[in-house]
Amino acid sequence: MSALVGTGALIRLALRRDRVLLPVWVVCLAGVTVATGSAVGELYGTAESRALLATTAGGNPAFLALLGPLHDSTTAGGLLAWRWGVFGSLLTALAAMSLVTRHTRAEEETGRLELLGATAIGRRAPLAAAVSVSALACALIGAACALGLVGMGEGVAGSVAFGLGFAAVGLVFTAVGAVTAQLSATARTANALAGGALGAAYLLRAVGDAAGERGPSWLTWLSPIGWFEQLRPFAQERWWVLPLALGLALALVTGAWVLVARRDLGGGLLPTRPGAARAPRSLGSALGLAWRLQRGMLLGWALGMFVLGGVYGAVARGVEEMLTSNPLLAQLIARMGGSGALVDVYLASILGVVGLFSAVYAVQAALRPRSEEIALRAEPVLATPVRRTRWVAGHLLFATIGNAVVLAAAGLGAGLVHGLRVGDVGGQVARLVGAALVHAPAAWVVAGLALALFGLAPKLVPACWAVLVLLLVLGQLGPLLQLDRWAMDLSPFTHVPEVPGAEVSATPLVWLTVVAAALAAVGLLGFRRRDVG
Amino acid sequence: MTPAISVSGLIKDFGPTRALDGLDLTVRTGEVHGFLGPNGAGKSTTIRVLLGLLRADGGSARMLGGDPWRDAAALHRRLAYVPGDVSLWPNLTGGEVIDLLGRLRGGLDQKRRARLLERFELDPRKKGRAYSKGNRQKVALVAALASDVELLILDEPTSGLDPLVDAVFRECVEEERGRRTVLLSSHVLAEVEALCDRVSIIRGGRTVETGTLAELRHLTRTSVTAELAAPPTGLAELPGVHGLEVRGTRVAFEVDTGHLDAALGALVGAGVRALTSRPPTLEELFLRHYRDQPPVAATR
């Protein structure tokens, strides 16, 4: 087919460009999977401890919402599928969709695809090449995980199902990325749309999993991440779930296949309307420009985090209900500080996840100056009387105050929903917004690190994303992997008080803020002294 | 009067490659100065140093009486810049970009903005990503020309413009002559020839020639072809005559402008039937510099 001419050459080009990125994704995901598998197997070494875990985790809506159901606790593989399945799927999906966008829309946006498109390259070749490379990455991630698990001594069927499960989620989001890359004219929007789909997939299964017998548990079936759970690796695998994922991926890729022929190179399918001929009064300063460039992302994140907080908040009441239905457990908990304390532990742990997510936003916001610089849009602004520090500071405001807004939105969502269910909206909103905001200084530290790299070593800026993945792994798996104290202490989030429930002491928060400010100052000084462009 | 821009011995390295290798440039206040050079000669690098975006590794640069690196923000109040590669924000309209850049510079002339939009036939309501290269260039040009500044720095401003818009651009620069200082980087020779009072030619990060067009022409050769009554004698021995071709009574040669008199004398001696002589174009000047001399430094 002439539309596919050149696909092979483009695949080779993509593999050449990603010769570091691809192996890193594969090795990291498989490595974390195997490490977590052996850690979780050791931690619950005895049959009794596994049985106890099954009764507590299996019926606890909080665990269900965060991690999904525990189908079989008798093997390390079964425990791994529960402990790491959802987060591993999330990361695989993230890798897949960012790969597709990177090789389709981002190339088109920068005009590089035009250079290639004028050579003997078919109209659909870039799409086909990007999807192939991403599918290859998913297959490699799945194969590496399966091999690693078999190497650990887990059952072959379960290991293969586990690997295929990750690969299937990755394939679906490869296809999602392929579609969103056709819809919008910028890579940023394409990633945001695909990220929204990923967030929806996570939330649908969170609600479905935590819903219980009478609730809308069917929601899990609407989510590709839910399909990983329903595949039940290591728990009488249900292989027939896999075709669901393959079917959806195929349908979406077909959609992208049709769409790519219907639009112009460089154009999107979402319409672009003519805008204002004059700039509004607000668009007249560095800060005004930063607001204009960042407000969409801030709004999207705030909305998403509000919904996430709401979903998590909705589950909190269930934690209490579970306790009343299990008097033995309730007695135990009462001795430890009461059911209120258990709800607080749950809320604190979900706010920990929220805090980490907010750091992703903070880094995105803090790195906007770098993407402006790369896109050659910094130059015309810095050739006006705007000072360099002021230009960066405008964006930094979003990484700090914007981050607080995003956190507050999550706290508000959780507080509203939980408050409505326990009949104390005012109190819960105030409590949870406060508890969410406690994470802001830790997120600022990560944003500060991003800014320091921007000022001192701009070429190393992509390392920020590796740091974020590392923090996610540390936060989610650190205690499980029994990492040394100093390793855990590297993460700023380790130092955040576990509120609600714990005492809030100002000292760590002040220190985190000081470290963040110092990093930001180093970044600003570095940027003042270096070449732009 | 101090020159608007005075650069001497400017050096800039990017890692192991030397982009500027002792470059000199003087732009007098009120003149339109052409900054000529082939791709990669260091034009944009020089301009970025002047804008304080890059830090020079050696030499000195003064602009509008200040230091381009230290006094960047203060100097930028008095200049407008059109980059060679205009990249617009995808979600801002052209009109918004013009207003934004104008306001950042401290305000722009509304009447002039409206007139320029009309002259350049630019629709300010389109979003950044919907503009073609030429139209993006127009957005930057309107933003620069509509601001009230004393110095315009234009980096290959007409690349991507069609001939009609190109003509509008030349009119606009013509109107600015004497009122503002213009540094116009270009490799379009006709444009420089038509617009510029003085020219600096650079190559491999060094200035190879600078002066008014008349001065530069003085340094160069006139092409002569003639139909003579008899084969010429002694022409080949004359100093300053180059590339002599004789075919019977037809001769063609180039002669250094300083030796034109003697060469014509030799032709008259042989009896002239027909004569065409062409003054050197900037093109020839340019070609000669880039054909005859090997590059002096690695280029960016």
TrEMBL record, chain A:
It comes from the Bacteria. The keyword Cytoplasm does not apply. The chain crosses the membrane at residues 20-44, 82-104, 125-150, 156-178, 190-208, 239-260, 298-319, 345-367, 396-420, 432-456, 463-481, 509-527. Signal peptide: none annotated. Keywords: Membrane, Transmembrane, Transmembrane helix. This is Exporter of polyketide antibiotics.
From TrEMBL, chain B:
The keyword Glycoprotein does not apply. One of its GO terms (molecular function) is ATP binding. It comes from the Bacteria. It is a peripheral membrane protein. Its main location: membrane. PROSITE patterns: ABC_TRANSPORTER_1, ABC_TRANSPORTER_2. Keywords: Antibiotic resistance, ATP-binding, Nucleotide-binding, Transport. GO terms for biological process: response to antibiotic. It is found in: Cell membrane. One of its GO terms (cellular component) is plasma membrane. InterPro entries: AAA+_ATPase (IPR003593), ABC_transporter-like_ATP-bd (IPR003439), ABC_transporter-like_CS (IPR017871), ABC_transporter_ATP-binding (IPR050763), P-loop_NTPase (IPR027417). Residues 5-229 form the ABC transporter domain. The keyword Transport applies. Belongs to the ABC transporter superfamily. PANTHER family: ABC TRANSPORTER ATP-BINDING PROTEIN, ABC TRANSPORTER ATP-BINDING PROTEIN NATA. This is ABC transporter ATP-binding protein. The lineage of its organism: Bacteria, Bacillati, Actinomycetota, Actinomycetes, Pseudonocardiales.
